[in-house]
Amino acid sequence: MSSNLRPFLKPGQVITGRWERNCYQAVRFLGSGGSGLVYLVRDKEARLRAMKISTDIVGISHEHRILIHLNNNCGLNDSNVVPRVYELDDFQLGPVVYHFLITEYFTGKSLGRLVGRTKCGRALAIGVQAIWFLSCLHKAGFIFGDLKPGNIILDGEHDEIHIIDYGSVSVKGHCLKQYTPGYDRASWQAGDRIADEGYDMFSLGMLLLSLVLGKQKQTGNHSLNEVISIAVKKIRDKTLRNLIVKCLKQEVGTCLESAESHEVISADMPGAEAGSEVGAFVNYVGAVSIISFMLSVAYYY
């Protein structure tokens, strides 16, 4: 589900916030988020930032509050997974008022460009980091809701993921308003659109499957059981295959326990490639157990 806005800023065009009076120069259009357009901009000190523009003040204000909370709580503020948030303001062009959110800009490659082209070792490494992020988010009382390749940036130099676009984040138990059919369990008749841990795990399973085998098409005769069968038959890496199946079956506790105890990084993983790609994350994920006990459940409103 995406915004109806079309790109309208030109490179070099300067936007000045009505309230804070900060100026930003458009560099280029980056893409469409769930509720708006995203541009790469430069601030007055020539630092690159991401600017999300929307006409939906409720939606973008919600995303702003979520990011502030995650920046300051949940054990995620030093992880480099969640972007720092700097400002919420608006500007007017003609009769239209546009609201904008300024956040940290991450360099790297969108996982949307790696669908069907990712090796098992790298997909597993991405999955481990994503589970760590989701574990922290869930313990804080939130569900991401729209986890998909286009919402994740991979920093190939450091082999780290950055998760962007938080407009879909919901409080546990609430109805999800933003989703993408291919990664939405309700579209696969595998559950409803109520925010719970299983929803995110299902999305992660579909995400990992799509990275390795390509996006699975939805047809009247293409059931979730058939998708699981495809994963079992075509993914040779046992550890990745088992993780994907557990996610699709929404075995939440098993997935989280696997990541926290490093069972997801098994000794029988084939090849040096997998070891090098995943090994960099062992210490990163190893902190999960400690962090998890330090987090308290917080409710957003």
Q: Indicate the CATH architecture of the largest domain.
A: Orthogonal Bundle
pLDDT under 50 segments (min length 5)?
A: 262-301
- Intertermini distance: 24 Å
Number of helices: 9
Number of domain units: 2
Structural class, please? Answer: alpha+beta
Strand portion: 15-25%
Could you give the order of strands across the largest sheet? 1-2-3-4-6-5
Q: Give the fraction of residues assigned to helices.
A: 25-40%
| Series of secondary-structure elements, N-terminal to C-terminal | EEEEHEEEHEEEEHHHHHHH
The CATH class of the largest domain is identified as Mainly Alpha
Could you characterize what this model shows?
The protein is α+β, with helices and mostly antiparallel strands and 301 residues long. It has two domains: 14-104, Phosphorylase Kinase, domain 1; 109-294, Transferase(Phosphotransferase), domain 1 (Orthogonal Bundle). It is built from nine helices and eleven strands. The protein has a six-stranded antiparallel β-sheet, with helices on one face. Strand 9 (152-155) and strand 10 (160-163) form a beta hairpin. Helix 4 packs antiparallel against helix 5 (238-248). The protein is elongated, with a radius of gyration of 19 Å. Residues 262-301 have low confidence and may be disordered.
